[in-house]
Amino acid sequence: MTKTTTDNKTSQKIAVLCIGNILMLDEGIGPRIAEELMARFVFPACVEVFDKATMGMQLLSEFKAFDIILAVDAVDNTGTPPGTVVRFEPEEIARYNTFHGAHDTRFADVLDAAELLGYRPEGHCLGVQIENMTPAVPTIGLTAAVEAAVPLMLYSVLSFLTERGIEVIDKRTNEPWDGISIEQN
């Protein structure tokens, strides 16, 4: 993870946790967003962007360091067309009643485990409705519909941060992000 910083306008530590597997088409939206965020923007020291393969209990030690965690991931069964960006709270996705394995843990489950350990960061989610995340062979890239959603997803992440008083610097202009434009690279 590469981190560059600007002045901090908040005392809250915020993690942007980008989840996904780049070998599974649309499942790779999280890493794609992490890559774009780190390449195009400068964040204050209170914000860290993570590119993580899977959501799981191994993230508990990292959760302890943050007040707010924004999970960015592929989602399915939203009832919306592929490429639709959705914002929701972790509790809106049902928790598991039984253990399903280390690679099938929900964000709400990890937040619950963190609370059992004595800390509870505020959790939020942004997702993109997938078209295909089960290719017949490992495939790097996003489907056209999900690729088209990248600018809106970037805008959504940056808006989430600015709503919390975070000033994000656009590396192309060396000015604060204007809150409006996100151009496709």
How would you describe what is shown here?
With 185 residues, this protein is an alpha/beta fold. 24% of the residues lie in helices and 21% in strands. A five-stranded mixed β-sheet has the order 3-1-4-6-5, sandwiched between helices. A three-stranded antiparallel β-sheet has the order 2-7-8. The radius of gyration is 16 Å and the shape is globular. The N terminus is likely disordered.
Strand and helix layout:
Elements: E1 14-19, H1 29-40, E2 41-42, E3 47-52, H2 60-63, E4 68-75, E5 85-88, H3 107-116, E6 122-129, H4 144-148, H5 150-163, E7 169-170, E8 175-176
Parallel strand pairs: 1-3, 1-4, 4-6
Antiparallel strand pairs: 2-7, 5-6, 7-8
Features:
three-stranded antiparallel β-sheet; single chain; alpha/beta; 185 residues; five-stranded mixed β-sheet; 5 helices; 24% helix
